[in-house]
Amino acid sequence: MKTVLITGATSGIGLACARRFAQNGDRLILNGRNAQRLADIQAELQAGGTEVLTLCFDVRDREAATACIRGLTRDWQGIDVLVNNAGLALGLEPEYEGSEEDWETMIDTNIKGLLTMTRLVVPGMIERGRGHVINVGSVAGDAAYAGGAVYCATKAAVKALTDGLRIDVAGTPVRVTNLKPGLVETNFSRTRFHGDEDRAARVYQGITPLTGDDIADVAVYAANAPEHVQIAEVLILATHQASASLIVRQP
Ligand code: 8X3
Q1: Tens of pLDDT along 7-48?
Q2: Which long-range contacts (CB under 8 A, 24 or more apart) does 153-157 make?
Q3: Is the whole-model pTM more than 0.90?
Q4: In this structure, what CATH number is given to the domain that contains residue 48?
Q5: Residue of 96, 145, 151, 204 marked catalytic
Q6: Residue nearest to atom 5 of ligand 1 (CA)
Q7: DSSP structure class, residue 9
Q8: 224 lies in which domain range?
Q9: Is the N or C terminus of the chain more exposed, i.e. has fewer CB atoms within 10 Å?
C-alpha cells in the first residue's frame, strides 16, 4: 500500500487519479482549493474503505503549502507517490493579445506550484530511499498551437522540470514520470473559456475524447511498475488526435 499525494484532486484528472489509486488499495492525501469538494470526495472514498487525508490549499500559496506538508503527522509523512496534477489553461488568444492575469495564473500554478510541491516532498523521498513523482504535463508541451502559447510554454516547462528532476535523482531509487495527455474531456475547456459551455463543448466535437480515467489508469500503471522500471514519459492521445494541433473530427 502506498501513500499517494495528489494535487488538484477535486476534479478532472486529479479526481480520477484519486478514485483509481483508491481502487488500487492505496491511502491518499488529497489537495485542492475547495474544502467542501475535498470533504465530499473524502467521504466517498472513505465509504469504500480508503484512508484519506485532505489538505486544502492553493499550490500557488507557497506558505500554505509549506505549512501543510511540514505539518503532516508522522503517520502521513512517508509520501510514496506525488501526483503533481494541479494546473489549468486560461484563454486561447494570440500571444500578443492574451490576458496578463491569465498568464500569471497559469505560470504560478502549472510551473511554480509544481516546483513548490516537488521541493517540499522529494527530499523526504530521497531520505527514505523510495518515491515516485508523476507530473501531469501535456501534448501541449511538445509543440505550441494557435492561441496556446503561454499554456504550451508552461507544459514545456513541466517537461523540462520532469526531465531535470529525473536526472537529479538518477542515483536514487526515486522515479519520475511525465504524463502528457491530449484532449481529455473534463472541466479543462470550461475553465479555459471562463465558463463558456458551448465553446468548451466544441473542443470535443467529432472525436471521442479521453477521460480522466484513461489518464489515471496510466498513472496507476506507472506507480505500480516493478521498481527497476521507470515510466519516464507517456503521450496519451485520443484516437483521432495525432498531435497538439492535428485533430481529425468525424462528421
Ligand atoms: C491539454 C491538452 O491539447 O487541449 O493539456 O492543450 S490540449
Answers
A1: 999 999 999 999 999 999 999 999 999 999 999 999 999 999
A2: 154/87, 154/106, 154/107, 154/110, 154/111, 155/110, 155/180, 157/110, 157/111
A3: yes
A4: 3.40.50.720
A5: 151
A6: 138
A7: T
A8: 3-236
A9: C
